[in-house]
Amino acid sequence: MNQAVDKILSQVRPKVKAILRTRQHYDAKHLIFQFKIPVWGIMEIHNGVLFHAASYLIAKFDSVQNHFLHEIGMTTSDAFLEFNFAPPTLRRNIGVLGLIHKRVLGNAHPVFQQLLLFFNDVFGYPRPGHDKQLYGHILDVQFQLTLYKRSIFGMVDVYNTLPQELVDLNTVQKFQTELTKIARIRCQAGAANWEFSFAGR
């Protein structure tokens, strides 16, 4: 995974440098826009694999974006609040929760429909919390609990703790928009580690 992350970053860093070379000609808004399309595209096409990487490897992506913001004179919080420029980790967490919600809505690939079963269908009784509880296969884990927490199954535990009004939303877009609003409120309030909202690890 180390080599894979370094390979992705070797594509990302030159693009970031190229954008920064134009900083004298553009304001922060336009520089961030230039970053979002090519750089996020390279980063996020690999999210399905990256999500399982160790935290110190994932942190490298946040570091690249934070360095970019530092160079254009912005903080992570201001960039998020002013330009919806969320940290990679937050975007990744919301993305995976969106996939889980897509499964709950019955719109995901059949593999996910079979993999992520409703808790009630597995055990025959409801789990406390909202009425769309999923089974995250925690009872099947014998070793490597850390790897479990870094997987989509660990994110099932996060999904199961969400409020009823969130899991009742009828589209993934609405669902992810509301998660972003929650993260924004935490950011505005100066909450510690708001960038890691909805993390399963």
Structure at a glance:
With 201 residues, the protein is mainly alpha-helical. It is 64% helix and 0% strand.
Question: How does this model look, in words?
Answer:
- The chain folds into 2 domains: 2-85, no CATH class; 93-196, no CATH class.
- 64% of the residues lie in helices and 0% in strands.
- The chain has helices at residues 2-20, 28-44, 47-50, 55-71, 76-83, 88-104, 110-115, 119-123, 145-149, 152-160, 164-167, 172-188.
- The model has no long low-confidence stretch (mean pLDDT 93).
Layout: helices, strands, pairs:
Layout: H1 2-20, H2 28-44, H3 47-50, H4 55-71, H5 76-83, H6 88-104, H7 110-115, H8 119-123, H9 145-149, H10 152-160, H11 164-167, H12 172-188
Helix pairs in contact: 1-2, 1-4, 6-10, 6-12
Keywords for this structure?
201 residues; mainly alpha; 2 domains; 0% strand; globular
